[in-house]
TrEMBL record:
An example Gene Ontology molecular-function term: monooxygenase activity
Keywords of the record: FAD, Flavoprotein, Monooxygenase, Oxidoreductase
Pfam family name, one: FAD_binding_3
Pathway: Cofactor biosynthesis; ubiquinone biosynthesis
Flavoprotein keyword on record: yes
Protein name according to UniProt: 2-octaprenyl-6-methoxyphenyl hydroxylase
Cofactor field: FAD
Amino acid sequence: MQHYDIAIIGAGLAGSLAAIALARDGHRVVLVGPRPVIADGRTTALMDQSIEYLKGLGLWDEVEPLTAPLVAIHIIDGTKRLLRAPPVNFRAAEVGLDAFGYNIPNAPFLEILEGHEASLATLERITASAMTFDIGEVEARIGLEDGRTITADIVVGADGRRSAVREAAGIETFTWSYPQTAVVLNFSHELSHQEVSTEFHTESGPFTQVPLPGNRSSLVWVQRPRDAEEALKLPLDVLSRTIEDRMESILGKVTAEGVPQSFPLSGMTARRFGKGRAALVGEAAHAFPPIGAQGLNLSLRDVMTFVELVGRATGRELAADIGDRFDGRRRMDIVSRTASVDLLNRSLLSDFLPIQALRAVGLQFIASAGPLRGLLMREGIHPGSALRSLKESLWERVGRQRA
């Protein structure tokens, strides 16, 4: 029976990045999970903090050619309601950055990670599914689909919304649903996107264009489920014209590529993010609509925190309370991000006039107040930094007054 320091269940982006980081710190790691049957057609916008982490892992030089920078984000109220919010523009230069982050196609990103996994001597990749779990006080025991059993000091659940690790650890969830489905695809366009992402807020949810290299972009189009079904049935030429009309032709003629994919939208947060010898990262811990590029960036902060908490390998058994400590470290970030995305999404769906008015006034205030916009941008890129900056500024003022 093979024993590891850490067993990571789920070989998506979050699980793969965690495995690479932990193996490079000298831990004996096993990454368990089958390869995807269908390539993931989505893209991921990784913000500055996440990009710096990829650079630290030595991955960025291979990933960068796949990416397009996001130098600005434009939010446009595309509703037909009486109370409409003004356009809001966020520019990376306002906070001293060349780009907020970079948009990366998921499938080739995962291929790069698989190549690095194979090169690490302390990382073993098992493509069989994990079937059974016994997470005890001394170790975690995992039964595999191929009949083998492995053990580990710590088990990390990176196995998605229906996490078997979460269930085995006895961690309950709080779940909710939205009357929405996200249609995702890539498209080419006549005019340059100028490295700007444009997010149209509609009555059914956001319609978000994110740059890819060249005159290409990815699209996340959140619609009512029935409308999404109809969109998936459209011939590509009709779908292309529909997208162009939705975008008010700001990128000229549009040509949709490949086969669109769809994902029903719901929300979930675990009641705990770790317990004993188990820790949850990514969508095993939290899931919410694709708004504001928060999903994988939040998952990467899970990974960063776990790797920091575990530390470099010492040859000693990992502590039995790592899951509990991880839960405490991640709670505020996850709860606050989940709540803010949920609130923004529900404000788009609400037909209640006072809610629409509050949203319009809030966006008007952000559009006109440069310092507030800067705080929000810094908070989106580096969570907690806006609060620290505000606190330091207040203390500086107090110090000057006392002097």
